[in-house]
Sequence to fold (117 residues):
Amino acid sequence: MTLTNEYSTQGIHTKHVEIPFSSSPPQVHDISYTNKPNTPESPDFSDSTLLEDQQQQLSDIFRLFPNVFSTNPGRTNKIQHHINIQPGNKPRNSAPYRYSPARHQVIGSNLKEMLQE
Fold:
């Protein structure tokens, strides 16, 4: 970083700072994992605490009854959610979160897909 001082003819003192920019390409993060369903034939046990034989039993169940398990969760009206608020208070209203254009596009495509179902 280089700092230079200059004086103009009008008596105004200015400072210039040169900041070197990196020549490496910008980092782009892959967010495609948000829409990657697991198929019932090959469950992912990487984050599981199941034992080997339990994992095998579960895999066998998925393989034997594939029409029972779905990769797309459906809707249900069997349960309703209620948020208790203290008397006299109103729910908070906050602005929506800001997202990067890439994430915004993924969210939009996911919403369109859910609305079509």
